[in-house]
């Protein structure tokens, strides 16, 4: 059992996987079971647009205001700045991720389901148990992931591989409590088994 966790407490679950693995599809399946999902990328974009303290930190790093006069996030300008100076990515992540984690914990406290899911490609083994109690990893063979992203985003194989360099999906598989294989195996039975297990208040021991 996770330290301090009882069957009366909601289980905090992370859902992760590399680009093209299909974790968003798996998240939708859990959502169809009535489980609330926190999408980290969407939350980060919203916080960058609404959290003034976070905005000030980002402006100090990037050297310009990150929102326009209408309060809209200048995403293209930010992306262009980060593209030409990759070292800034870590600096930006160092201020964005803590803001997301604070927002996530507040969100977890508002949920009343047996478990709730935090969906993010950047989940690490160290996030358990401080951020989440359990981790689900979605896995698909590398070439399948590449083909999915090429078809989805209309990009080249070289561009997809460049994105993949920023992730280490093999590591996620090693530290996950549950594994969903998204290649040729049916997804629904896999998700349903995990849903039944977590809905019963059960966890995989550390």
Structural class: alpha/beta
Count of β-strands: 5
Question: Any idea how many domains?
Answer: 2
**Full CATH superfamily name of the largest domain:** P-loop containing nucleotide triphosphate hydrolases
Can you put this structure into words, describing what you see?
51% of the residues lie in helices and 12% in strands. The protein is of the alpha/beta class and 206 residues long. The chain has 2 domains: 1-36 and 113-206, P-loop containing nucleotide triphosphate hydrolases (Rossmann fold, 3-Layer(aba) Sandwich), CATH 3.40.50; 41-110. Strands 2-3-1-4-5 form a 5-stranded parallel sheet, with helices on both faces. The longest helix is centred in the middle third of the chain and has 24 residues, at 87-110. It is globular, with a radius of gyration of 18 Å. The model is unreliable at 1-7 (pLDDT under 50).
Task: Give a quick precis of the structure.
With 206 residues, the chain is α/β, with parallel strands linked by helices. It has 9 helices and 5 strands. The protein has helices at residues 23-32, 40-50, 52-62, 75-84, 87-110, 142-153, 157-164, 169-175, 187-199; strands spanning 11-17, 37-39, 115-119, 134-139, 178-181.
List the helices and strands and how they pair.
Elements (H helix, E strand, L loop, with lengths): L10 E7 L5 H10 L4 E3 H11 L1 H11 L12 H10 L2 H24 L4 E5 L14 E6 L2 H12 L3 H8 L4 H7 L2 E4 L5 H13 L7
Parallel strand pairs: 1-3, 1-4, 2-3, 4-5
Helix pairs in contact: 2-3, 2-5, 3-5
